[in-house]
Amino acid sequence: QVQLVESGGGLVQAGGSLRLSCAASTRTSSRFVMGWFRQVPRKERELVAAISVSGSSTYYAGFVKGRFTISRDNAKNTVYLQMNSLKPEDTALYYCAAGQPITWSAPYDYWGQGTQVTVSS
To answer: Which residues face 112 on adjacent strands?
Structure first.
């Protein structure tokens, strides 16, 4: 089983930046696609960004494209989400996920506990 732990969330003003990190308990580079999801109350969890096993391919949801960047450091078993130009609408609980999904969106097998991102206006 893979344990995922997110960090880096917090409170920022609109227009600011945050860098989320997701540390995995085992080596992920040769096995797992990694993704970042977010969720707000009463809404479905939605895919924000994902990165291929090798790191050569990435996916971004339209609402973050051009503002967020996903990357991975295989030596550290860590995936990152650099978030720039944050908007209040980005406020959510952000989850890291790992797996071998059929599509970018699903299914993922392992999930972190989430890290809260709050963007003030």
So the answer is: none
